[in-house]
Amino acid sequence: MKNFPSSIGKRKQNKLTCFATSLIATLALASTVNSANATTLKTTIVKEISSVSVQLSQTKPSTTQLPNSRIQYQAMQLSPWGLVPIAVVGGFVIFVPLFFGGLVVIGEREVGIVVRKFTLSGRGLPADRLIALNGEAGLQADTLAPGWHWGYWPWQYSVRKESVVVVPQGEIALIVAADGASNPPERILGKIVACDNFQDARKFLTQGGEKGRQMGFLTAGTYRINTALFKVIMAANATAHGMSPEQLRVYSVASDKVGVVTTLDGVPISGGEIAGSVIEGHDNFQNGQKFLDGRGRRGLQEQILLSGSWNLNPWFVSIEQVPMTEIPIGYVGVVISFVGKAQEDVSGVAFTHGNLVNPGHKGVWVEPLYPGKHPLNTRIMKVELVPTTNIVLNWSGRTERHKYDANLEALTVRSTDGFAFDLEVSQIIHVGALDAPKVISRVGSMQNLVDNVLEPSIGNYFRNSAQDYTVLDFLNARSERQTEASEYIKAALRAYDVQAIDTLIGDIQPPASLMQTQTDRKIAEEQRKTYEVQQMAQTQRQQLVRETALADIQQEMVKSEQSVHIADLKAQAQIKQANGEAEGIKLRAIGEAEGIRATGNAKAETYRAGVEALGSSGYTAMQIMQIIGDRNVRLIPDVLVGGSNGSTNGLVDGLLSMILWNQTAKPGEITPTPLHPQPIVPKTPPAPPNGATPLVVEFPTDK
Questions:
Q1: Is the CA virtual torsion 602, 604, 605, 611 positive or negative?
Q2: Which of 129, 268, 350, 579 is 20 to 30 A from 181 (CA-CA)?
Q3: 82-113: per-residue pLDDT in tens?
């Protein structure tokens, strides 16, 4: 809006322009008297006057027309002194309507701001008003449109010409009203009234328009604004009003972000709430008046702006662009909303560890967010990421990428024999997508699950389990301990809606002193095995030497083996021959024995019959006599043995005689005696081939 002194200077220029125009018109009238083409010249002069009146600030066409008119006058043989009366008459014709008729000409790209200097009644503006609505002295609400306007005498009115307001594409213009009703204390922006985009100042003031910063604003276009009432702030002059040009441009939200809205006007937020509820019908905060009419709350809003361009009043809303909530693959997002409808628990009677609500309500949403990008207001919602893949937690010095086990260390347990040792454990867990809201409602976050559930449960189990075994038993039976731990922890975590996939026992670090003894024992055992291996190697080496020597004497060995085999066959043949002869002798002996037995039995039967017939004495005498007869036994011995005087020396002498007799016999000949009547010739058996002396049994033969 231009200042008032500059407008006064412009009015002086306009008066000079009007005077020059009247002079030209006078000359034109004079030329009509002395020229046959008066009608044509008059038409030309009227056109020139019209063009000059439309462009009052440009006096150049008038000065250009003077030489042309002078040439015409010279052509018509007019003297310069004859032009004076024409100029006087023309000045009256033109200047009198302008000055006394109050003619004001407004260009097509201008708007006239009227100031009434005085009124005949002397009525002035009320103390609380700046713009006159009823003809009071001062700035007038009504403006002058393009064209000719009469009755605005210069001694009573001052008309200031302002250029129309042009809002470029991609920009908005803010309005500050200098007059109007006062704003209620609970609002900071003037309400929107139907005033043709602030082009009708009278409607603005009569329909309750409020002074100060306005809720309404101008979008791209051309407007005829009463700049005496409305101050227009655009990007071109934003710096002069304490704003940045970016605030006066159409607001754009990036495609991968959301706009978190904070309203600067409206009803205060209710107690216990942190954001205003969603209000329908305000077209994404572009119509601030509908937001206020719907009892919209000032401050943080639940509703967000999605990607796009929006005409927003920076005095009404403040936008913060935040990235969309991204749920990576392998995760689900559990939404914890701090605003929304009243809680209505949908978790069921069995779940007593927290409340689960439907989307749009305050609390933990029962439905998780699946992988992707979600436009959420992260100022009023919290999204807890829950991995749906298997999670490995290490009670050791190693930390996984998810960092949930960053605070976990190796477990220190004590055995039943009093030794303390460190135990490394790895636990694999899984949280289902539909179980994730239950887990978060119960413990709050995955880190809380690890710190407050898994760490004490697993740590206490292994501490209790280790006290039932010695260190060496625990070390030697680690697979059994691992199986027991896996079953126990599965049952324990099932109560927290967490699946225990597996429990793994890692490195076990017994006391160094105990392990030293085991190490020494193992070293000794390994040394023994080493010695056994060396002994086996030596034995194999000996065997190799033996086999090598045997290979060297293989030919002689074959000959010797064949000789041994031949000798063995001969010995077997002799053994078989001897066995055959022995078997023959045995059979002959058996036959002879049977014959003797049969003969003896016959004789015994004969003797038994004789005894029965003759009696034992008679049969004995008969046999004696038969033997004496058959053997030619001499009844009178060659040497008579007798004694004198009843002594027994005769018997001894007889025996001695017989001995001498036998000694004087020829070698190899045995003289029959009464005791041995028939000589016995010894038989010498043939010698066997092997040189062994055969045993020959002679049985006496009775003839």
A1: positive
A2: 268
A3: 666 776 666 666 666 555 568 889 999 999 99
Question: Collapsing DSSP states into helix, strand and coil, what is residue 29?
Answer: helix
SS3 257: strand
Other beta carbons within 10 Å of 332: 24
Give the residue among 501, 502, 495, 490 at the shortest CA–CA distance from 388.
501
What crossing angle do the helices spanning 38-54 and 4-33 adopt, rounded to 10°?
A: 180
Six-digit token string for 93: 């014709």
- What is the number of other CB atoms lying within 10 angstroms of the CB of residue 218? 25
The tokens for 95 are: 């200047």
What is the distance of C-alpha 304 from the center of its chain?
29
Query: What's the predicted TM-score (pTM) here?
Result: 0.59
What mean pLDDT comes out for the span 29-43?
34
Q: Are 106 and 144 in contact (CB under 8 A)?
A: yes
Angle subtended at Cα 583 by Cα 581 and Cα 585, rounded to the nearest 5 degrees: 70
Give the pairing type, strands 251-253 and 221-223. Answer: unpaired
Among candidates 532, 514, 441, 528, which has minimal Cα distance to 475?
A: 514
- By the 8 A CB rule, do 62 and 21 touch? yes
Q: Given the structure tokens 């701090």, which residue do they identify?
A: 338
Neighbour count for residue 42 (Cβ, 10 Å):
16
The pLDDT tens digits of the residues spanning 451-505 come to 999 999 999 999 998 888 888 888 888 889 999 999 999 999 998 899 999 999 9
**Burial, 15: exposed, middle or buried (Cβ in 10 Å; 0-12, 13-18, 19+)?**
middle
Q: Strand order in 381-387's β-sheet?
A: 356-357, 363-365, 331-337, 381-387
The first and second tokens of residue 255, run together, are 């495609």
CB 395 within 8 A of CB 448: no
**pLDDT tens track for 121-150:** 777 788 888 999 888 888 999 999 999 998
